[in-house]
Protein 1
Amino acid sequence: MNIILLGPPGAGKGTQARLIENSRGLVQLSTGDMLRAAVAAGSEVGLKAKAVMEAGGLVSDEIVIGIISDRIDEPDCQNGFILDGFPRTLPQAAALEDLLASKNKSLNAVIEMRVDDEKLVERITGRFTCGDCGEGYHDTFRTPKEEGKCDNCGSSNFKRRADDNEETLRTRLLSYYKETSPLIGYYFAKDNLASIDGMADMSEVTNQIETILASA
Ligand code: AP5
Ligand code: MG
């Protein structure tokens, strides 16, 4: 099963992708995580992406399509994957279609996570992540069970993203509405879109996604 999670910054794509990954044996493919890894490694891609990401813009289609194309060929993706943050432009959606067709794969569902824009600031500015295992947290909505210690791996190495501030979020939202939100209409017209209430509690959001996947 191959699915797309579509939604603005802070919609909960990463949070839900990790949960479905565990429950369904699918692989989370987050282009944001891959690009941040490239930046941290100082690779050629990372050097090109760093300033764009810190400013809240979009990295070039060419770069992200190349990353995804290579990644879905890897053995762990053969049972299926969750695309988190890709595609983000109409050319990326078209390239994905070609890629999947050339590999004899298809999309089972595109899930739009609907959220109120004014709540995104709170979600983004309160987010932190375990730097060792990637588990996601929030200052208010998801705190570690034991303060300062990751529930998943016990690490105390928590990180906040360079682009998680109110000013950059505004630019990220603009990028979303200009470049990415047209994909909602695109997948609706292709009869592949399901929309869920991303404002619900995390577990309720998971239930809504599971219901869609059960009939996909
Ligand atoms: P990316 O990393 O994809 O960032 P994003 O799209 O801005 O999305 P986020 O990761 O901020 O939000 P999320 O939906 O994953 O929310 P989360 O689950 O963490 O991309 C970063 C940058 O990389 C882009 O700006 C761009 O420059 C570049 N890039 C990446 N892909 C690209 C592409 N395809 N093309 C071009 N450029 C690309 O949740 C947020 C917080 O809310 C967390 O703290 C969480 O605990 C909390 N939360 C989650 N769900 C709930 C809930 N239901 N109730 C309460 N709190 C919740
Ligand atoms: Mg994310």
Protein 2
Amino acid sequence: MKSLRALAMATLALAVVGCQQKKQEASSSGAPAASQAAAPVGDTILFGHVGSMSGNEATFGDSTDKGIKLAVDEQNKKGGIKGKQIVVKTLDDQGKPEEAAVAATRLVTQDHANILLGEVASSRSLAMAPIADSNQVPMISPTSTNPKVTKDGDKTRPYVFRVCFIDPFQGTVMAKFARENLKITDVAILRDVGNDYSVGLADFFAKKFLDLGGKIVSDQSYKAGDQDFKAQLTAIKGKNPQAIYVPGYYTDVALIARQARELGMKQPLMGGDGWDSSKLYEIAQGALDGSYFSNHYTPEDPSPVIQQFVTKYKAAYGAVPDALATLGYDAANVAIDAMQRAKDLSGPSIRDAIEQTKGYKGVSGVITLDSDHNAVKSAVVLGIQKNAAKYAATVNP
Ligand code: PHE
């Protein structure tokens, strides 16, 4: 009798979750952001995801959302968390920091989200972080790599965490690869000045590259959304570098590569995780062949955890998971793991449990959060050949 009633309740909860998910899918596919009411119905747990579901970085939000929902569906099938089903509500920030702040505020104050997941882009996570802290709602960024995301000046933000490495490491990875593997001495930099990630990563790369005896022969800038990069590229061409470091996001990077080739420039480009998108190759049309970027993971990794995840993800969505999908999945699972361990589901209790995350076996690596709330993990370097990314190297912290 008891178990029959439990079964009936679970079915009801699942039906509710099903409805919720349909609504959110509607909200993420064009309907005005945040217009869908998806407050937790009954006894559910709400994961609030803030992501770029539209705009120039739409694949970031879309992949992350898919990873999060896969983790949540799996957990709901296992009975949820502390007997409650999990609901995901996704708000589109259109790739704008101000919209990310609005979305985060709405999720915590109106929808009473138990946790915030997001953002991918560091500038947008930086806009959300103070909101997480002041409302005592934990936030886990899957992939924001700028060190400032989890910091408030010198102090670690109590409610802000991430499941990825940070850019002082990522910058070092490509600087070492350029100097030691590619034997490059002269590099130019082309950075997105309005993007905290791009500016930070360019600086971390430059510092290490200089330390290793390399030279930065030109340091140029652009703004996300620019269409014409020929002036900067012409200036770079005049200095004849052996490679150009472009730590930007995929839409801009692909256009930059095409325009460099139009100007007759043959140098490889180098970059970071912001290149990771299937759209990079669509837009670049081969212009990035011979180029390299650092990333969090590669679906080519033969390890069973990764291959099982790739298979599951393909079955669910018909595509190979990029790093965003994988880290979205890991971020949601770290949240789930912490909520199961938390003494109750209040913000402070969940926060304490997240902070104690140690040795969590994620798909992207083993996750232990350090005193700055960062994960210390290895990076991979991918090389682009025939308009597709191929594994080149792994770099440990
Ligand atoms: N690391 C980037 C940032 O902090 C975001 C990103 C991560 C983009 C992974 C693509 C893949 O802004």
